[in-house]
Design a protein that fits this description.
Elements: E1 28-32, H1 38-42, E2 53-55, H2 56-62, H3 68-76, E3 80-82, E4 85-86, E5 93-95, E6 101-103, E7 106-107, E8 116-121, E9 150-152, E10 160-166, H4 169-176, E11 184-191, H5 196-204, E12 207-208, E13 211-212, E14 217-223, E15 227-234, H6 241-248, E16 252-261, E17 264-265, E18 274-278
Parallel strand pairs: 1-18, 10-16
Antiparallel strand pairs: 2-5, 3-4, 3-6, 6-7, 8-10, 8-18, 9-10, 11-15, 11-16, 12-13, 14-15, 16-17
Helix pairs in contact: 2-3
């Protein structure tokens, strides 16, 4: 966006590497996904091979129904059946290839081919399959995708930017689990100009209703007399966290755009566009 850097503040572990580039909607780019780290590999057991038992929530996520955390909610709500029996215990295991698993009244089919899409979510679009109020959802833009996918993480209705959509439950788990501390970067336009003291508060951590935020990396990238753009990088991602942090120091968010999740970059995608990426 042609911003000039006036201030940079970083912390260890936040990578600025990535891949972008404009592409037509739905085009395949052959972009490699980030390599799994050794620690992430330890999350997966040798028992996860075909003809073995796995936790129900992992099977549901790997089938592309939803994220693993969402699957846990469905199990607790009694919306999952295995061989005709309702499952409500999160530790329950099953064989995805042999057992008959019903999720929300639909039979589960094991999805072996993993697919990955980067999508630019426009403002005023819900990150859900269906909205009771009839508002547009991200899946209104993704009707040509050949596989069932779900979004990794969320973006507020009034926020925009990068979403990763996939049926790879393991990758989704690695990217969203708090222990992974995957950095997420946002461009934030605020009303007013933050002072040095306000920026230091954001960098050190802000006390919110649910607790104190982890240290953040802050960079002012453009400013006028009345407002400015900041780049904020976090290793957390709680609901409306960036907005609440900025409001807490006395500034108002005008616009918020996510531009990176780990090594995934928004690149030159425009609102409503998506591109397919490949695991090499």
């Amino acid at each position: 966006m042609g911003y000039s850097s006036e201030r940079k503040s970083g912390f260890a572990g936040l990578s600025e590497r990535g891949a972008g580039g404009r592409s037509p909607e739905g085009a395949s780019q052959g972009l490699a996904l980030p390599d799994r780290e050794a620690s992430a590999k330890q999350m997966r057991s040798k028992d996860a091979s075909p003809r073995s038992n796995e936790r129900i929530q992992k099977i549901i996520a790997n089938a592309g129904f939803c994220s693993r955390r969402e699957a846990e909610k469905w199990i607790a709500a009694g919306r999952v059946f295995v061989n005709g029996k309702k499952v409500t215990e999160l530790g329950t295991k099953a064989d995805a290839y042999r057992d008959k698993i019903i999720v929300n009244g639909k039979p589960l089919t094991r999805e072996d081919k993993k697919v990955y899409y980067l999508f630019y979510k426009p403002r005023n679009v819900m990150v859900t399959h269906h909205d009771p109020e009839g508002r547009p959802t991200v899946f209104d833009y993704l009707q040509k995708i050949e596989k069932r996918v779900y979004p990794v993480g969320r973006l507020d209705f009034d926020s925009e930017g990068l979403l990763l959509l996939t049926n790879d439950g393991d990758l989704a788990y690695e990217l969203t689990h708090p222990k992974s501390k995957v950095p997420k970067t946002y461009q934030v336009k605020v009303m007013g100009i933050p002072t040095e003291a306000q920026i230091k508060k954001l960098e050190a951590g802000i006390k919110l209703d649910w607790g104190t935020t982890a240290p953040a990396a802050i960079e002012i990238t453009k400013k006028t007399e009345k407002n400015c753009w900041m780049k904020i990088t976090l290793t957390e991602g709680k609901n409306r966290q960036v907005r609440e942090m900025v409001e807490k120091i006395g500034l108002h968010v005008i616009k918020l755009r996510r531009i990176a999740i780990g090594l995934f970059r928004l690149g030159d995608l425009k609102p409503g566009q998506y591109k397919k990426v490949h695991h090499k």
